[in-house]
Design goal:
Number of helices: 18
Protein name: MFS transporter
Organism: Flavobacterium cupriresistens
Subcellular location: Membrane
Membrane topology: Multi-pass membrane protein
Oligomer: single chain
Main location: membrane
């Protein structure tokens, strides 16, 4: 890709970097505009939180599948026209979603948004990397891009909270759509109209493979998101979804192995670093999924208001930035990737063990700052090195396929991580609630004393004796439910912490982890 003449001569390099970075922000919007406030977005669409989670999987899963064919589109159209068209469609789609209340139509929009999210990212990211006149351009460019993605949740959530305090939800979507108009304008005035890649005919697109892999991804994601709610294999719908996922995945593999020029080259699995990188990505995202339990505790147990939780997430974001800077420094200094992984996973393990003792009925912000920042540093430290490690050992001709493996690790890690946390919380919550409820009975003098005192406090507020007694019992069982949630959180964090310790030991003794990432040979086009 030669981008030397794609920008008009009057545009300075620093302005080009800013413009390209602004254009990449559309990924933050498409991923964060609904996940930023799950409860409100779910109520706006009259759906359950699981439905919204599946909608997010639809967007990211469609992005994953579209990477297979993205190069055909970006190579067929002139870059300027291509990017302007994509961002125009993104803006129309986001604004249209403000008027959608039917969940099926919303899912179709999310499929379209996933396609539109995949189409410009690789082109823009490579143009951004090309603006850094350094052999470490990949590290710098990746740090910018993935730093933006990591910070998307607190950034969009704070904007969402402000909008919900001052305006209707739709206005946030209007502003998101207007950002796409800004992208179109910036590209129009700064880009030249010629192409930067060789033109490839659109008729060579492997639509069959695309449909097969997209079907496998979406049905597989549906299975994992709704498995707990629909009682796993007791539901015929779950069995059907799993069967469709396995059959279409099998047909995709068979087709790719049987054609001369496959869309995805399965020979990438011959490289040990790629297999290990995929596994580490998968486990990394599962360990990240526990952060949702921490945020749930802020809302449900500690009763923090949304604006405070939104602000607190910036603390974790600061940790992400520190980790990204440290990772870039270590990679530039050719520090062993093994040591980077050990430090990163150790920090995340420390976060889990530390936070185990913070799941109490009430905490101060000062109590959680240090472990919360350490988790952010660990995540930022691992992100870019994991991407480069997974792809750098694969020949350039397989770069696209190796990049898809990296995206797959992130997608399935986050999807299955959600499933694991959902099922673990449901099981452990129920177990602890039943156990603690045994101590709340009519024969317990202590229980009767607490009920009597609580009843008196409600009667003092003007409630009748009967209503006060009902509220007292409800309050006691509410306390039991909160304590059950805290115990479940502690148990999950402890298990994940020990799991990470095992992973750290395996990394330390693994002989396939190469000592450094060769940044000069790394031709990473996808991630």
């Amino acid at each position: 890709m030669n981008d030397q003449d794609i920008f008009k001569s009057w545009v300075p390099n620093w302005a080009i970097v800013i413009i390209l970075f602004v254009c990449l922000l559309h990924s933050m919007i498409l991923l964060g505009v609904y996940t930023s406030n799950v409860t409100y977005a779910a109520s706006f669409l009259d759906i359950e939180p699981e439905d919204l989670q599946f909608a997010m999987c639809v967007t990211y899963g469609t992005l994953l599948a579209t990477i297979l064919i993205e190069a055909r589109f970006s190579s067929f159209f002139p870059t300027k026209n291509y990017l302007m068209a994509v961002y125009s469609l993104v803006g129309i789609t986001i604004v249209s979603s403000a008027y959608v209340t039917n969940f099926t139509v919303f899912l179709l929009l999310r499929v379209f948004e996933g396609i539109l999210m995949a189409l410009p990212v690789i082109t823009i990211r490579q143009l951004l990397i090309g603006r850094f006149n350094s052999k470490y351009a990949i590290v710098i460019g990746f740090s910018f891009y993935y730093g933006a993605l990591l910070l998307s949740t607190p950034f969009i959530m704070n904007i969402a909270v402000w909008f919900l305090d001052h305006y209707d939800w739709k206005y946030m979507l209007y502003v998101s759509g207007m950002l796409q108009v800004l992208n179109v304008f910036l590209i129009w005035i700064t880009f030249k109209g010629h192409r930067i890649t060789k033109k490839i005919p659109l008729y060579q697109i492997d639509w069959i493979s695309y449909v097969l892999v997209l079907t496998a991804i979406l049905t597989g994601a549906y299975f994992f998101v709704y498995a707990e709610k629909k009682y796993w294999f007791e539901s015929s719908q779950m069995i059907l979804m799993l069967m469709i996922a396995l059959i279409t995945a099998g047909l995709f593999v068979f087709k790719e192995l049987s054609v001369k020029r496959p869309s995805f080259n399965f020979e990438v699995f011959k490289y040990a670093n790629l297999r290990i990188g995929f596994l580490l990505f998968f486990l990394f995202y599962i360990s990240r999924a526990t952060l949702s339990l921490c945020h749930a505790a802020m809302f449900q147990i500690w009763n923090w208001d949304p604006s405070r939780v939104a602000g607190v997430q910036y603390i974790n974001g600061i940790g992400n930035v520190i980790g990204l800077i440290l990772a870039a420094f270590f990679l530039i200094k050719s520090i062993s990737t093994k040591y980077i992984f050990l430090i990163g996973f150790s920090l995340i393990a420390l976060f889990h063990f530390w936070f185990t003792f913070l799941f109490v009925p009430d905490v101060a912000l000062s109590d959680i700052i240090i472990p919360y920042v350490l988790q952010g540093i660990g995540v930022g430290l691992l992100f870019v090195p994991l991407i480069l490690f997974t792809t750098s050992s694969v020949p350039p001709k397989m770069a696209a396929s190796s990049g898809i493996i990296g995206v797959s690790g992130r997608f399935w890690g986050s999807t299955i991580g959600f499933c694991i946390m959902q099922n673990a919380m449901a099981f452990l919550n129920k177990k602890h609630f039943l156990k603690l409820s045994q101590f709340v009975n009519d024969n317990s003098a202590e229980t009767q004393e607490v009920i009597a005192k609580t009843t008196q406090s409600f009667m003092a507020k003007g409630y009748t004796a009967e209503n006060a007694n009902t509220l007292a019992i409800k309050k006691i069982f509410g306390t039991v439910a909160k304590q059950s949630t805290l115990l479940a959180d502690m148990e999950i964090y402890t298990i994940v912490g020990y799991g990470l310790l095992v992973l750290i030991v395996l990394i330390a003794f693994n002989q396939h982890l190469k000592q450094t990432v060769n940044l000069v040979k790394s031709k990473v086009w996808i991630g």
